[in-house]
Amino acid sequence: MLVFILNAGSSSLKYQLMNPVIKKVFASGICERIGIDGVLSHEFGDKKLKVDANLPTHKEAIELVLRTLTVGEGKVIDSIDNIQAIGHRVAHGGESFKSSALVTDKVIKEIEELIPLAPLHNPANVLGMKICQELMPKTPNVAVFDTVFHQTMPDYAYMYALPYDQYEKYQIRKYGFHGTSHYYVSNEARGMLDKKRNTRIVVCHLGNGSSVTAVLNGKSIDTSMGLTPVQGLMMGTRSGDVGAGAIQYMMKQENLTIDEISELMNKKSGILGISGKTSDLREVLDGMQEGDDRCRLAVDMVAYNIKKYVGSYVAALDGIDALCFTGGIGENSALIREIVCTGLDGMGLVLDPIKNNRKRNDSRDIATNSSSARIFVIPTNEEYVIANDTYEVVTKS
Ligand code: AMP
């Protein structure tokens, strides 16, 4: 089964061609600057290809990707007819979707109805589906949602303490995101644990976007992102949790519109806002080494925020069997892992500094042998979850 995975953003489009049955990736890449000019970066085997192109819309971008996969230097398949299914990453499934879904007109309509909850992402996701239907009319499309894994949260965890009619009228509640990553990592962690039942796992997905999830017996019971991804941890450019009073005060003082405050909190805050330099943690760590105190503050805030969420989710789970780190920061920054885990011995989490500092890129246990709970670093694989769900939906339909 050859699955084409698409992650369509507002001006970019990531793709992968994968056989989920044997977990083999044939090609992957990204089209960027769609609507501006256009560039395609394509990887196949150990080779890389860069193509400058005119990509006025997502349609030209998908056409270019399909052409690159089938002809010329970057070719990996003879024809687009070899693609048996297409899996689309969809940002927001609201309460309508409790699992991945075969794309039909009704499903597209339901995803469109959720656009107010994800105004930047859902329109691009739907566009990707419609273009694929047009270019490959015989190939089934499947929608895989970032929110679905968190649909198991109990009501007392997902409700905001606002007037109840806000939930009834507008479905204002916590949804959570990064679901495919939290599912993949917690599932891997369950496999790595000695016990397979009653597992209490906290997953820290730490990248440019970051979230923490409490997973009980394989099900999400709480997560740090909310109605939108801006809630929870401090991220690359997102603020994470900020008191509502501070938001109202900023809007009043600076006479900000809804769009302006949203831009401020989603694009100009987080690591970028505090460091004043960059949203990239590696660069902030370098700045800290060079004595920049704002970089030091950003690093301290990032780690402290994660630690607070870990502690609160250990309480929500009535204990912990495994703490997992994933994402660009979680997989690569031994320092952040060390700061987060320092002092958590009382919760049964004891980090082994030697294992933590070993540079490896496979799944591994970095807790001491005597630690009662495990600490895992697990490289995430969201594309695999999308491809595998697509395969299962298509073969069962
Ligand atoms: P992602 O969004 O998962 O690709 O993660 C991107 C983030 O991971 C950026 O903030 C990077 O600076 C950070 N990152 C990647 N490698 C490292 C590293 N070796 N040390 C610290 N941060 C890293």
Automatic annotation (TrEMBL):
List the residue(s) that the UniProt entry marks as the site Transition state stabilizer. H178, R238
Domain of life (superkingdom): Bacteria
EC main class here is: transferase
Q: What is its EC number?
A: 2.7.2.1
Residues that hold Mg(2+) according to the record: N7, E382
Please state the gene responsible for encoding this protein: ackA
Stored Gene3D superfamilies: 3.30.420.40
**Where is the catalytic site?**
D146
Q: How does it assemble?
A: Homodimer.
Protein's recorded name: Acetate kinase
Task: List the HAMAP family hit by this protein, alphabetically.
Answer: Acetate_kinase
Matching entries from SUPFAM superfamilies are given as: Actin-like ATPase domain (SSF53067)
State where the protein is found: Cytoplasm
Cofactors that this protein relies on: Mg(2+); Mn(2+)
- Write down the species: Halarcobacter mediterraneus
Q: Name one GO biological process term.
A: acetyl-CoA biosynthetic process
Residues reported to bind substrate: R89
- Listed transmembrane segments: none
Entry binding sites for ATP: K14, H205, L206, G207, N208, G209, D280, L281, R282, G328, I329, G330, E331, N332
As to how many cofactors bind and how, the note says: Mg(2+). Can also accept Mn(2+).
Q: Which reaction does it catalyse?
A: acetate + ATP = acetyl phosphate + ADP
